[in-house]
Amino acid sequence: MLVPDLEPLGKLEINNMKINNPIVFGLAGLLHDIGKFGQRADVTYTEAELLDTNTKNIIGSICKLTREGWYSHQHVLWTKAFIDKHIAKFIKAGLAEDSETYNNLVNLSAYHHVPSTDEQGLLTLADWWSSGIDRNTDESLKKNESWGRDKFRSMPLASLFEKLEKWGQEEEKAKWVYPINKFSTGESVFPLVVSDVDNKPNYRKLWDAFEADFGKLPDSEPLAFIYSLYHLLKLYTWYMPGSAMDYQYISLFEHLKTTGAFAQSFASFIKANPDCYIADSNHKIEFKEEVYPVQLLCGDVSGIQSFIYNISNKSAVKSLKGRSLYVQLLAETVANELLAACDCSIINMVYAAGGKFYVLIPNTQKVNEAVALYKQELENALWKEHKGKLSVNISSTAFVMRKVNGDLKTFIEGESGEKNVGELWKNVAERTGESKKKKFKNILLGGFAEMFEASGIGGKVTVCSVTGEEMKPSDNLKLTKDFIEQEGPKMDEAENLYISKSVKEQIELGSDLVGHQYLAEWHRAEKDTIQIGINTHWKLLKNFDEKQYKAQTWILTKWDNEIDIIPESYVERNSALGFRLYGGADVAIIKDEKTNKSRNRTFEELADSVKGDEKESFTRLAVLRMDIDRLGEIFMHAFDRIYDDNGKKVIEKKGSFSALATLSTQLDVFFSGYLNTIRNKQEYKDHVNIVYSGGMICLP
Predict the structure, then answer these.
(1) What average pLDDT score do residues 202-221 get?
(2) Is residue 597 included in any domain, yes or no?
(3) Phi then psi dihedrals of residue 665, to 5 deg
(4) Which residue among 523, 550, 579 closes a domain?
(5) Final residue of a domain: which of 224, 259, 287?
(6) What is the pTM of this model?
(7) At how many degrees (to 10) do helices 222-237 and 22-31 cross?
(8) CB-based contact 506:351 (threshold 8 Å)
(9) Averaged over 321-334, what is the pLDDT?
(10) What's the number of domains the chain is made of?
């Protein structure tokens, strides 16, 4: 595609990059701005406590000299110092070399503003694609004098929702901001008035805690280390602004992860296609015409509503909760298995929640073949398990970003004209929607009879007491008294009720949610685990037990006050560590008068749990379901600016992957996180159940 008005690179040179392990580029992108955290926790460059003399002395090589005669982007010094300090850990994890080469992990991360090689220039390009702007322009170096020279230590993360409220209006300085703190699902999810926020005293305390936790991360396996580091960075840097050039609404963490995703994708693509790019003498990189190095891939679980609600009243709450978690885990599992098939990592995950996920992956032949093979295997596995009731639709859009008239614009393979990032998301969402029309293509081509011939047993046959579906005799499992909840204390003996194996697993999943703390993952079958996807197995556990359960991953899903992903008993350092949001881990309980033991309230008991001063003649169960209107439109145009300037209408299509990722996380924090805070308040905890974290609450 020939694009008009592209800004030239100047004297062009074609170089062959030396790329051994693309994931190292992803890690370099994930860490490229960690120095912003360190710099804000430290004092001035000349007196910095976290910088050694050798690092200070290279400021002229690593930072940009401005027209005013001072060095900008000094945070890269702290990036270099952090990686240098912990280089032994990176080497042990197999993600760095003890080498002085120009393109080791340290230099890839630290030289992204003044690259001295094409490989380092690749990180510069990833930084630009992530932020959506060329951040090396003089315009970006303007100071906000109201904050003073060290404004980067005071600048808070601005509320993105305030920006949405002024959708289409001219930019103003933010009034609502977040104090820096560790990631939380409590009251800190709401911003404060800017005059009430002072971030300077908190940075050093957080930095010291971050470094202490970093030293405890697993380092015996590369992907386990990356997974754990990813979540540690989310824990500590999410409520920090990505930039201090002005009031910023993009989370530092979201910028780090999307930069890493682009860097890894670029490196993989160039390794497979060495002649796909051009570079100038300053190592400024641009991809050639008709080259689309990255693809945004979307996965969407289809059939959620009918799957979740296809239950009888027996074990209804446990079934609802178990099935809703199953759907969430299905989307996340497919995303992770797909990334593994593409030789990518958690860094490439843009968003995963609500039965849908987005990932950024290389647009190489090898990756495309891996995706096609995985889709076929997944389709067969889901058909075998659910017979078409549940499926995952997967589609992608390849794209490239180019600088046009001062702004980075998106160009989609097979389409004409420039797009904004939101339109790219819409494009891949529409393609994924279209794929629903062909969701059983492989089954149809490979087994026509299985899809269209009569199914079931017929005649006198046992049906599942939860779903009402026919079961083979070998699949009959008795629904035990412990799992029958709707008849509550009135039930003296368990009925002769039977369920299928998969329904039993889902009920157990919903039952285990109560009182659990961790979600453990294996890549092989283990006792009492539930298989989801192709080869991933999950189990909910009450406590961390590294010796008894040799899990690949331990994910913290429930906490009281502060999130701490590294358990005190974590000593072997082999398993990956992380955390995830889940709405509804706690449920309303009641003490059984017969057994004197606590158990879950039934729906009837929820409806009867709150009464006024007078005895009511009947009770009701209320259901609240929440959704967001115009979400697709928000993602497409949330960052457009449309306003009159001297009588002339001006339309600026801005936005970035970092901004959209920030918005996605903030929505998830409310629906999957803060709803727990509301529900666990004293006045609600005995009367309210969150059935699933998509926003449905049952209350009397």
Answers:
(1) 95
(2) no
(3) -65, -40
(4) 579
(5) 287
(6) 0.89
(7) 20
(8) no
(9) 89
(10) 2
